[in-house]
């Protein structure tokens, strides 16, 4: 599976870069994240629970940052196992571009592979779930980095919150 997109974030490039490297910010934004700990400046371990169709699993895994070009880009790669549900591995190239002093465009290109029960669910369901999870992550990340204090606040600032001003 491959996915490319970009997200406009209302924060300076340096702030976005710092947040992309802050395990506390990432933990707030990753859907289903139970734990995320930095084991070195370029490695993290994570525990994430998510559901794809009828399969719900807890994945434990390792994430590595490489090709670092602060504050412009990096490659993030990881792999995790969800027991009988299967495994997931892949990565993303993340590139930051300043639109203005206060707005950053985050470009990402994701590639991933899955195996086990998850792989039996079908490509369309997997792709739809991956797009949904990426959308949730970037909406929460943009809101947290752009001024909300938690991912919960980010959800409140969704389209309905913007519409009603709450």
Which terms would index this structure?
166 residues, alpha+beta, Alpha-D-Glucose-1,6-Bisphosphate, Chain A, domain 4, 7-stranded antiparallel β-sheet, 5 helices, 30% helix, disordered C terminus
Structural class: alpha+beta
CATH topology annotation: Alpha-D-Glucose-1,6-Bisphosphate, Chain A, domain 4
What is the CATH class name? Alpha Beta
Indicate the low-confidence ranges by residue numbers: 149-166
From the alpha carbons, calculate the radius of gyration and give it in angstroms: 16 Å
Oligomeric organization of the protein chains? single chain
- Give the CATH superfamily: START domain
Tally of domains: 1
Largest sheet: 7 strands, antiparallel
- Strand arrangement, major sheet: 1-7-6-5-4-3-2
Write down the overall geometry. globular
Distance between the termini: 37 Å
Considering DSSP H and I runs of 4 or more, what fraction of the residues is helical?
Answer: 25-40%
Quick take:
With 166 residues, this protein is α+β, with helices and mostly antiparallel strands.
């Amino acid at each position: 599976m491959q996915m490319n997109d970009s997200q406009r974030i209302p924060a300076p490039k340096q702030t976005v870069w710092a947040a992309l490297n802050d395990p506390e910010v990432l933990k707030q934004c990753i859907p289903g994240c139970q734990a995320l700990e930095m084991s070195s400046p370029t490695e993290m371990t994570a525990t994430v629970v998510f559901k794809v169709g009828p399969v719900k699993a807890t994945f434990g895994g390792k994430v590595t940052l490489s090709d670092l070009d602060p504050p412009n880009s990096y490659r993030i790669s990881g792999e995790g196992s969800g027991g009988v549900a299967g495994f997931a591995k892949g990565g993303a190239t993340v590139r930051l571009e300043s639109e203005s002093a206060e707005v950053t465009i985050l470009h990402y290109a994701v590639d991933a592979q899955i195996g086990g029960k998850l792989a039996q669910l079908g490509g369309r369901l997997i792709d739809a779930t991956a797009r949904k999870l990426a959308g949730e992550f970037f909406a929460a990340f943009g809101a947290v980095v752009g001024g909300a204090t938690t991912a919960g606040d980010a959800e409140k600032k969704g389209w309905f919150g913007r519409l009603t001003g709450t």
